[in-house]
Amino acid sequence: MSFTPEPSDHLRIVAVIQARMGSTRLPGKVLRPIAGQPLLWHIVHRLKRSQFIEEIAVATSTNPRDDAIVEWCRDNNVIVVRGPEDDVLARYARAAELLDADIIVRVSSDAPFIDAGFIDHLLTSLMEQDADYVLLEDGAVTAHEGVDPFTRRALDRLMMDASGDPAAREHVTGYFKLHPDFVRIARAPAYPALARDAGRLTIDTPDDLAFVEAVHARLQAKAGEASLADLLLLLEREPGLRALNGHVRQKAIAPSGGLALIRCDGGGRFGYGHVKRMVALARALRDREGLGALFAVNGTADALEPIARAGFEAIAIDGANDAVALSELVRARAPDMLICDMREGIGREELERLSKQLPLTAIIDDGSERRLAADLAYYPPVPQAEALDWQGSHCEARIGWEWALLGMTKPAAAKRAAPPRPTLLVSMGGSDPQALTLRIARALTKLNPVFRARFVIGPGMENRTRIARAVASLAPNFETVEGAADLAAEYAASDLALVAFGVTGYELAAYGVPALYLCLTDDHALSASAFEQAGMGLSLGVAERAEDEDITAAVWALLSDAPRRREMRAAGLMTIDGEGAARIAADLAKTLSERRAGGFRAAG
């Protein structure tokens, strides 16, 4: 290292880690454990190896949620500074003043593999060139992320001349990248040890966390032992590890991101379809568009479990007091959009009042009057959607199979070997509100047992253990599927499905599985008719009016007709591509950006 400041020229260099518990994409991530230690511990531990950094501080917000960060800092003898949650720049200014800093190293709290040698390399160029900010030379590549050294001069100028700019307030040094003439920028040469592209190494989502944990496991490294150079060598040997989080997109420097408030029904009499497909949409918003999600769920407590497993915050609300609950959440959390996927709750007038406080409102597959108060609405091309009247509404309706929202990510295209006997998948929904599973099993015992039947026992079924035992005891070719987080593996292994119509019908079509639909309501039967018309399956009508003999006859006919099943498979794959969540997320993000650019202002 060529630069060593003289004592008389001593520059006080401090590292300031920006951290808060309210990350929109992965709440509480800074204290989530990696190899047994919180993410924040890893960052502090690595910063201590710098030759230049004299002090390390954490800049967090005054929000009570961040009290946990303050407590951790006190327990670990780390200086903590608190300031406005929505103004990162102000927090840095306060930290620089309290620490009497001449140079500040801005450190994000999502990069567990920061390298002290690389930080010192940047600091050397900054000081040698007497500049205010530093970037690598044009064309230089680095695997390193998450640090930006800049001077107190540059920080003071930001406060004086750019404190009202959203990019400066949210990203601080990102303002220098957007306005390269604002301060003098030094150019650091490439850092050979890290001069390569490693893909995503930051932690913004549960998949990022799984990637970092997998890296530590493969390196057999304890907390703090694995270096960034070690990681790069590992990725050269095992590039397949990148697939764990390669689909996640980095948030842009320009003001973006935000929070989606998702209101849905789930569990009990609602089933789990709404929750499943909204989790898929929330994943696409988070991983592809940089938007976090907060769920407000009306239903039973078990509906919150798959949301939590996916890494999202979920709050149970009472549908009878929906308007009050949503108004309180909008006021407290200031979401950027409200997305509704529900069958009961707020009406048109209540949604209109909420819409005045939000840049964007959207609804999913909703035929009620509240759709007229939304900005965007998404539907598959079922008869009910095609017949909707939008007169007097500003809502833009998107209707087509491309907007079909599945409860899982797009299936991988893969061929499987033909099984010795065909497999029938039977699924009457997560809660099976009409107790159809045992009825269907008894009816199917009358068929020749040359097929394998797999019965899904949903998590919300009453007496599910008893039902599972009863089904398995009826015939040697009957098996049960219990405790499955999703049914992707079952779909991939099935030749035919008999299902209660709902989100499962869309998923089966995307997987190319021919299906027979039993419908719980006349409305479902009307929707199922669109699937039949598209050639993806056959509707057996409303379940309570369907005869067992007709159901078994339809099953046997399709099990015996491989050519027709192949036609149905092709129709499903051609009709529903599985990209509905990504497509809706992109449309929402684009519309939100346009609303922001247009200067949306909440009403009084």
Structural class: alpha/beta
Ends: how far apart?
A: 57 Å
Poorly predicted spans: 1-5
Largest sheet: 7 strands, parallel
Strand order of the largest sheet: 12-11-10-13-14-15-16
Shape: elongated
Strand content: 15-25%
- Based on CA atoms alone, the radius of gyration comes out at 28 Å
Helix % is 25-40%
Described by its quaternary structure, the protein is single chain
What does the average pLDDT come to? 88
Number of strand elements: 22
Number of helical elements = 22
Kindly describe this structure:
The protein is α/β, with parallel strands linked by helices and 604 residues long. Helices cover 37% and strands 19% of the residues. It has 22 helices and 22 strands. Strands 12-11-10-13-14-15-16 form a 7-stranded parallel sheet, sandwiched between helices. It has a 6-stranded parallel sheet with strand order 19-18-17-20-21-22, with helices on both faces. Strand 15 (376-379), helix 14 (383-386) and strand 16 (396-399) form a beta-alpha-beta unit. Helix 3 (88-99) crosses helix 5 (152-161). The radius of gyration is 28 Å and the shape is elongated. The model is unreliable at 1-5 (pLDDT under 50).
Secondary structure topology:
Layout (H helix, E strand, L loop, with lengths): L12 E6 L14 E2 L2 E2 H9 L7 E7 L5 H9 L3 E5 L4 H12 L3 E6 L7 H13 L4 E4 L10 E5 H10 L4 H6 L2 H5 L6 E4 L17 H14 L8 H10 L20 E9 L6 H17 L1 E9 L5 H5 L3 E5 L4 H12 L3 E5 L6 H8 L4 E5 L11 E4 L3 H4 L9 E4 L23 E5 L9 H8 L7 E6 L6 H11 L3 E5 L5 H5 L3 E5 L2 H9 L3 E5 L2 H12 L3 E6 L5 H12 L2 H14 L4 H18 L7
Parallel strand pairs: 1-4, 1-6, 4-5, 7-9, 10-11, 10-13, 11-12, 13-14, 14-15, 15-16, 17-18, 17-20, 18-19, 20-21, 21-22
Antiparallel strand pairs: 2-3, 6-8
